[in-house]
Amino acid sequence: MSDDEADPELLALLRQHFQGKLNLNEEPETGVLEGAEHVYDNAIDVALDMRATKNAAAIIYNQMQQKQFSTESWSEHELHPKAKDESTVAFIFTMDLLNFSFWSMRPEGERFAVSYRDKTWTGYWSLVASLQRALEEDIPITDPHYWQNEEECNLESLRYVFRSCTEEEIPLLESRLACLREAGRVLYEKYNCSFTKCIEAADKSAAGLVNLLARDFTAFQDEFKYEGRRKPIRFLKRAQILVADLWACFNGEGYGEFRDIDKITMFADYRVPQILATLGCIGYSPPLHAVVAHKEIIDSGSKYEMQLRACSIWCVELIRREIKREHPEAEVNAILIDFFLYDTMKQLEAQGKETIPHHRTRSIWY
Ligand SMILES: Nc1nc2c(c(CN[C@H]3C=C[C@H](O)[C@@H]3O)cn2[C@@H]2O[C@H](COP(=O)(O)O)[C@@H](O)[C@H]2O)c(=O)[nH]1
């Protein structure tokens, strides 16, 4: 076939490939860890304490060993779905589409809470309880067709799904509806109305699935410009925890099988930074410490917030490296360390042992 018959775009790609500028076989990268290190290297309001981080690595490793913490721990949670099938994939997608911003400015007993299975659930668990309750009431809350049906799925019906047993309703209800609407539209337009088609498109790459989510759904585009840097800093927290929840729930098999799962980083939320600060691994400048300690609002995308999120990602990476250095055989990655730290923080909260508050940023990103 002569040049003038070949597709010019394909020719350009091949020319770049053979000039070594483009590796057609290269594995996807999310860029999250690279961005986190950049912010850490330039941070002035958040610092890492290497001795505390080293000590934390030893404590975390020993406790994870004692508790035999593994992907199996995910399904042991009372409210997490147990079936290893497509309905659970739909549940996890819906859950991590809405897995953000449960914190309240109200006193503990007045914050948004959900009554389900004779218990009162707050925070992340209020979300999971609401979804389980809706399914038991035959509301198809995990079905993309429902999300697009404005007759059935609207602010009123969503208010009912997330009805509270206190005076406070779930934060950002309108934003949650918008996330469902967009996801319903994108799944309809590109993925045959099923998130399993996104998993198939990622071809068992965790980074590829994270990038696909950030590319196709604005609700997952958790990235921000930072101080004149050309490329945005990517946190992609809900996209990453979605992949991690699939991997953990399915124990790395079937819908949870990813060859590059270790590329997933810690999920930059508001709980893990809190326990890292409690362990002394991360420290705040006096002005930032005052803002966090007084539970003042920190704006989404602000320098304070980005340093908090990025330094937490980097800190967990250093903890992971320290554990692997001391125990090369350890089957540990940033996901399991993160899950363990989140659960530990929630235990401290339940025991009333919070010493440093979590930071308060209201956004759909975490
Ligand atoms: N980094 C990180 N962030 C996590 C989780 C989870 C729950 N994961 C479960 C799955 C496996 C684990 O074993 C957990 O049992 C929720 N979050 C985030 O925290 C915030 C909610 O806080 P609160 O309002 O206090 O419940 C909110 O931003 C939510 O997105 C995690 O694991 N890691």
Tell me the Rg in angstroms. Answer: 21 Å
The dominant shape is globular
Q: Structural class of the helix and strand makeup?
A: mainly alpha
Task: Give the amount of beta strand, in percent.
Answer: under 5%
How far apart the termini lie comes to 53 Å
Low-confidence stretches: none
Bound molecule types: the ligand Nc1nc2c(c(CN[C@H]3C=C[C@H](O)[C@@H]3O)cn2[C@@H]2O[C@H](COP(=O)(O)O)[C@@H](O)[C@H]2O)c(=O)[nH]1
Q: What would you call the quaternary organization?
A: single chain
Helix content: 40-55%
Element order: H for helix, E for strand: HHEHHHEEHHHHHHEEHHEHHH
Largest sheet, described in full?
2 strands, antiparallel
Order of strands, widest sheet: 1-6
Provide mean pLDDT, rounded.
95
Q: What is the number of helical segments per DSSP (H or I, 4+ residues)?
A: 16
Number of strands: 6
Secondary-structure map:
Elements: H1 8-18, H2 32-41, E1 46-48, H3 50-66, H4 72-76, H5 86-97, E2 114-116, E3 119-121, H6 124-136, H7 144-148, H8 155-161, H9 173-190, H10 195-201, H11 206-216, E4 223-224, E5 233-234, H12 237-249, H13 272-278, E6 282-284, H14 286-293, H15 303-326, H16 334-350
Antiparallel strand pairs: 1-6, 2-3, 4-5
Helix pairs in contact: 2-15, 3-15, 5-12, 11-12, 13-16
The structure holds ligand 56B.
Ligand 56B binds at residues 73-74, 77, 99-100, 102-103, 123-124, 267, 269-272, 338-339, 342-343, 366.
